[in-house]
Amino acid sequence: MRLKFKQWENTTTDTVMLGFVELFRINRIPTKPDWSGSLWRTVMILIVIGTLIASGWGSSTIRAMKVLFAGERPAPFIDASKVELYAASVRDDVLLTVLAVGVFLIFRGPERARPKLSISVKAYFVYPLLVTLGTLTQRLFAWIPGFDVTIRGEPYLEPGVPQTLYIADAALAGPTEELVLMAILVVAGRRLGYSWAMILLAAVIVRVPFHLYYGWAALGLSVWAVLVVLLYRRTNALLPLVLGHTTWNVMVDLELGIVLGLFSAAGLVIAGLSLHRCGKTVVESRQVGS
What we know:
Layout: H1 2-16, H2 18-24, H3 38-54, H4 57-70, E1 77-78, H5 83-108, H6 117-141, E2 156-157, H7 161-171, H8 173-191, H9 196-207, H10 222-235, H11 238-253, H12 257-289
């Protein structure tokens, strides 16, 4: 039964996404398990867990749960007294990014086909669209009784060094989250032979909990977590996703909602054109096959 399900999963995803494979002309990430022995499995799982712990995922999740059950989300109050705290946070994020890049490169293995520049640019603009879709789903979930969104008070950011460090800290969430919570999970999961369904489930499990400070409606962000993995799977473009996440966070902190809207609109246009081309490719491939 399990074998039949895996065969159905592989056949279905290959058929549906054939147009994207043809469009992007890339190799899969990675295609089959290379380190499936029991020792390697144990070592890799421990490394992934260790990276999650080092990233502060556990403590962030605990803080998010406290906010969730308190029903109140404190507003950031950043002044000169917080400079040392945020400077340390920025330093730790930089060190974590270096560590995560090293772990990612080890798990990724031999160099894969790199996406063309045009594909990387498309992926960069599509990323904000995925966050927007996750946010819209979160707002839909907020209509469910008990799933209210926890509202944050108006933040205070003292101009100068405090504000700069606060924004830098938010910007570094791009590389840390996309490396630790997405890319490493993907490459390690594939090396260990896990299906894409299991990897998508793992991506949701690690991405959503520390966003629960938004309230239970944050479960809607599962859409974002899943779509980011699928975008990475089909473009092999990690850097654009990191930059897209960084851009989103910086724009939110600078309260540039109009710019975010334009980014998302551009991503919608690009995604629409790509899906149209994907559909044509699938139809043409079936006509040739018949």
